[in-house]
Amino acid sequence: MITCYLKYVLDPYQIEAFEHYGKLWMPLVEKFGGQHHGYFLPSEGANNIALAMFSFPSLAAYERYRQDSMKDPECIAAFKFAEETKCILSYERSFFRPVFGDQAQQPA
Question: Is 75 helix (H, G, I), strand (E, B) or coil?
Answer without folding.
Answer: helix
